Amino acid sequence: TPLEKRENLFKGTHIVVTAGGTREAIDPVRYIGNESSGKMGFALAQVAERLGAQVTLISGPTNLVLPAKSSIQRINIKSVADLQAALDTAVQDADILIMAAAVSDYRVAKIADHKMKKDDFNGELEIKLIENPDILATLKRPDSLRYVVGFAAETNDLIENAQRKILKKNLNMIVANDVGNPQIGFESNQNAVTILRPHQANIELKKNDKSIIAEQILKLIDQEIN
Ligand code: CTP
Ligand code: CA
């Protein structure tokens, strides 16, 4: 496709991307987090921008920076509650949601006001966790939202687990990622994924730079909605 066409692929389209991992506070200086560099989400946001989209990027804590000239609206969040609040607003006029963030399944039941002191616990500390809402499954989808993409990082039974999540979360697409493979770890600039959609054959995207994988995913989405 000529460059000019590619740059207009998502003209007039608002794409919301979530990226990175969430942090659930234990006390003012500690948190429970999960592995996620944010690189896949940032790549999706930047390629979507290059393809002409209006992009909102909701990001967990990460070292990644966008170029100064970027038109991407970046919203930084920490907890799942932050993510939910930011997303509820951002999706209001969104056409596409790509949920690449690693969302903490549990949060700390009672966050300590003060730094916890180790001597207050006799060599053993239990922290009670409460399940977080499933943001994708429970999101109130505005009429404008035409396409919803989830991610699934799995160490085993990749396809079965991802397939189940498509149904459970009512997704148009899930990007399934075998995180048991040490060659394409979280911090890697490369990824290899399987794309699942309801009622369509799965597509394997071979190991490649995350920006190339992002472009392949976005072009598939474009084919689906146009
Ligand atoms: N997700 C979400 N809200 C949550 C948990 C996950 O929106 N509370 C989203 C993720 O951003 C991802 C998709 O759901 O796009 C799948 O996340 P995953 O952790 O693989 O699925 P879970 O339903 O949490 O199942 P499990 O962790 O038990 O495998
Ligand atoms: Ca989870």
From TrEMBL:
Protein keywords: Decarboxylase, Flavoprotein, FMN, Ligase, Lyase, Magnesium, Metal-binding, Multifunctional enzyme
Catalytic activity from the UniProt record: N-[(R)-4-phosphopantothenoyl]-L-cysteine + H(+) = (R)-4'-phosphopantetheine + CO2; (R)-4'-phosphopantothenate + L-cysteine + CTP = N-[(R)-4-phosphopantothenoyl]-L-cysteine + CMP + diphosphate + H(+)
Domain named DNA/pantothenate metabolism flavoprotein C-terminal: residues: 11-222
Binding residues annotated for CTP, in chain numbering: D105, K115, P133, D134, I135, L136, F151, K165, K169
Ligase is among the record's keywords: yes
CC cofactor note: Binds 1 FMN per subunit.
GO cellular component: phosphopantothenoylcysteine decarboxylase complex
Region Phosphopantothenate--cysteine ligase, residue ranges: 15-226
GO terms for biological process, alphabetical: coenzyme A biosynthetic process; pantothenate catabolic process
Ranges that cross the membrane: none
Superkingdom in the source lineage: Bacteria
Cofactor(s), names only, from the UniProt record: Mg(2+); FMN
EC number, as in UniProt: 4.1.1.36, 6.3.2.5
UniProt pathway: Cofactor biosynthesis; coenzyme A biosynthesis; CoA from (R)-pantothenate: step 2/5; Cofactor biosynthesis; coenzyme A biosynthesis; CoA from (R)-pantothenate: step 3/5
Gene Ontology terms for molecular function: FMN binding; metal ion binding; phosphopantothenate--cysteine ligase activity; phosphopantothenoylcysteine decarboxylase activity
Purpose: Catalyzes two sequential steps in the biosynthesis of coenzyme A. In the first step cysteine is conjugated to 4'-phosphopantothenate to form 4-phosphopantothenoylcysteine. In the second step the latter compound is decarboxylated to form 4'-phosphopantotheine.
Similarity annotation: In the C-terminal section; belongs to the PPC synthetase family. In the N-terminal section; belongs to the HFCD (homo-oligomeric flavin containing Cys decarboxylase) superfamily.
Entry protein name: Coenzyme A biosynthesis bifunctional protein CoaBC
Species annotation: Pediococcus pentosaceus (strain ATCC 25745 / CCUG 21536 / LMG 10740 / 183-1w)
Recorded name of the encoding gene: coaBC
